[in-house]
Amino acid sequence: MRGTRAQTNTGRKEGMNLNKQQKQKKETTIDSYYSPNGTEGERSANDKPEIPANWIQAVEELKTQLREAEDNWEKNLKIKISHLETEALELKQENSVLKAKITQLENEAKEMKDEAKEMKDKIKRMKDNLQRNSDQKEKDDQKAKDEIQSLRTRVKQLESSDLTRQQDTIRQNKKNEKIEENVKHLIHKTDDLENRSRRDNLRIIGLPEDHDKRKSLDIILEEIIQENCPEILEQEGKVEIERIHRSPPVFNPQLTTPRNVIAKFKNNQIKEQVLQAAKKKPFRYHGNMVRITQDLSASTLKDRKAWNMIFRKARELGLQPRIKYP
């Protein structure tokens, strides 16, 4: 686990360094094509600078390193999830074994109770025989005493065994509590990893399905940004999208609301700028209201949903509650 965590941290640091280097390369390339007065296209064809070959090679190396870092990160994430699933399966198997042991102990206790009852019946018959056979009273009395002593010894053994079982049950309960704590911790770590994997994603809510038939989703997203916050495009240029798709991927005609759109940005800073702009004012696209939020895991969304009523009451009191990401 420590090795996997170290690889994940190394991949994350390499990804951040690559983003910084890529941004610096992009700014240098853009600045080289502008005149000193800040206007584009005033230089002649002879004055246009040529891109050095080592720059192109560096860019290709950066892309290769970025892909390798991303592959390593995804591989480590799959390994962690596999380990968590294996541990969860082992815990289930241990619980099944413990249940079987408890059932076995209960059956043994029931058998001991039946034996004790039989012993009592036997003592009663012995007393009746003593009354009918007075001439063998002394012999029968001694025999009865011996049997009573044996029964007392057996009862003590049963009491000692019962105490041992109680102690085992207490230890097992403590072990089960520790197992439950470990499972909760693993679930929390899994949710945290999933949320971190979605940190570059935005969720677009309310975008009608019919727009997909005329244009691709990446073009629609760029048009939404152009329509609602054009200053981001003016500063950063074209918005680069790594992946964008509908969620769920299969269309359900029974649903009355359009499916959400998940977009993964290559540049986290642009993603944050779009998210902050969406918080300041409602976004529209061709007259339709669309809502843009941070993409989170299903468990985190469920936990946040539990706060809806509290937030509603707080807003009625004039407060502005917020949940810190994630």
UniProtKB/TrEMBL annotation:
Residues 1-52, 109-177 are annotated as: Disordered. Residues 40-50, 109-149 have a biased composition (Basic and acidic residues). Residues 199-295 form the L1 transposable element RRM domain. This is L1 transposable element RRM domain-containing protein. One of its GO terms (molecular function) is single-stranded RNA binding. Residues 1-10, 158-170 have a biased composition (Polar residues). One of its GO terms (cellular component) is ribonucleoprotein complex. It comes from Monodelphis domestica (Gray short-tailed opossum). It comes from the Eukaryota. InterPro entries: L1_C, L1_RRM_dom, Transposase_22.
